[in-house]
Specification:
The chain has 329 residues and is of the alpha/beta class. It has a domain of 182 residues: P-loop containing nucleotide triphosphate hydrolases (Rossmann fold), CATH 3.40.50. 34% of the residues lie in helices and 24% in strands. The strands form two sheets. It has an eight-stranded mixed sheet, sandwiched between helices. Strands 2-1-4-5 form a four-stranded antiparallel sheet, covered by helices on one side. Helix 5 crosses helix 7 and helix 7 packs parallel to helix 8. The structure holds adenosine-5'-triphosphate, iron/sulfur cluster (SF4) and magnesium ion.
């Protein structure tokens, strides 16, 4: 497989496990993804498929009982998994920053908003405290908040939408090369969700940051992203430009997901695919989707489908498109 497919981030053959009392959870089973500078990648898939673990592994933030077993995460030209912790720390929150689903639990409850943003800025540059506060106020205005009022507020005083705006301000304050947003709007009600996404869209457009947007909602990623990675049970199932994925979905799992898209905004849309998410302590052999796939072949039970390129900007891991699968049809 080619080494460098994106000029910003190249994740290859990423394996992550969690050691639990139930056994070893094989959470990521060779994830492949890549991004170019300024690009927006959406990651979609059912609960437990490994979206959050993937994004945390990108920052080398897998904690006990989890472990990155193998693979590489090359950010520009540095393999994040091989750097020393203090080197990774310089990248985190500076070149790569993150915003999460639960903004309030990511904020420090005993510090006011102004201080928290100023603190982020303080890590990035060595300017005086006064100018950090000024920059923090500007960031708050940038995300549509009244800085005079919000600077001195504490997290518990913020509404969900305000808290997420504060998180976005903190995430964008260092002007990161990559912003990772893990379900940034799913805890908010629908009208606020739309406002926050529009805001994020607007700001990253202005600043030119690359964004990795994780979502359950195919409609959301389609609106926001130019590339989409569909994950299934710890694997990259399909990776394509948004246009190609919608025009010509290849993986049977993607086809199932897309059938559910007209119901944008419904949280249960992914249930349109029959069967249940596999137990990753004892994942299905071969293709992890074979027990639910409407097109399963003999080979699917035995061999893991390779992740192959089918055309420009379109990759899939399914035997229907690999040679062996073709022979079996
Ligand atoms: N701290 C942990 N301990 C044990 N298992 C974990 C832990 N974190 C993640 N996992 C396992 O790793 C797998 C992937 O989890 P992950 O959180 O990445 O899913 P996800 O796609 O983000 O799901 P969701 O859409 O619900 O957020 C799951 O099977 C989960 O059980
Ligand atoms: S490899 Fe086989 S089981 Fe897996 S998605 Fe393709 S056809 Fe279905
Ligand atoms: Mg998650």
């Amino acid at each position: 497989m080619m080494d460098k497919r994106g000029n910003l981030l190249n994740v290859s053959d990423l394996h992550v496990v969690f050691y639990t009392y139930r056994g070893v959870i094989k959470a990521l089973n060779g994830v492949e993804l890549w991004m170019n500078k300024g690009e927006r990648l959406g990651i979609v898939g059912e609960t437990g498929c490994g979206k959050s673990v993937t994004s945390r592994a990108v920052m080398n933030l897998i904690e006990e009982p989890g472990k990155i077993i193998s693979g590489s995460v090359v950010f520009e030209d540095r393999d994040i998994l091989k750097l020393k912790e203090d080197e990774v720390r310089k990248i985190r929150g500076n070149e790569i920053s993150m915003i999460f689903q639960e903004p309030k639990s990511s904020l420090n409850p005993v510090m006011n908003v102004g201080f928290q943003i100023a603190e982020v800025l303080g890590k990035v540059n060595n300017k005086s405290i006064k100018s950090q506060y000024k920059a923090a106020a500007e960031m708050l205005e940038f995300v549509g908040l009244d800085s005079e009022r919000v600077m001195s507020m504490y997290p518990h005083e913020l509404s969900g939408g305000m808290a997420q705006r504060v998180m976005i301000a903190m995430g964008l304050a260092p002007n990161p090369k990559l912003l990772i947003a893990d379900e940034p709007t799913s805890a908010l009600d629908v009208t606020i969700q739309a406002q926050i996404l529009e805001l994020l869209d607007d700001l990253v457009e202005k600043m030119g940051n690359a964004v990795m947007l994780i979502s359950h909602d195919m409609g959301v990623v389609a609106e926001f992203c130019n590339k989409i990675l569909v994950m299934y049970a710890g694997n990259s199932a399909e990776y394509a430009s948004t246009e190609k994925l919608f025009k010509k979905p290849m993986h049977p799992y993607t086809t199932g997901l897309l059938k559910a898209v007209p119901q944008i905004g419904r949280t249960d849309e992914l249930k349109a695919i029959t069967g249940t998410v596999p137990d990753l302590v004892d994942p299905p052999s071969g293709c992890r989707f074979h027990k639910r796939c409407p097109q399963t072949m003999e080979i699917c039970k035995k061999e893991r489908p390779p992740f192959i390129q089918v055309e420009e900007d379109h990759y899939v891991a399914c035997h229907l498109y690999s040679q062996k699968g073709g022979e079996n049809k």
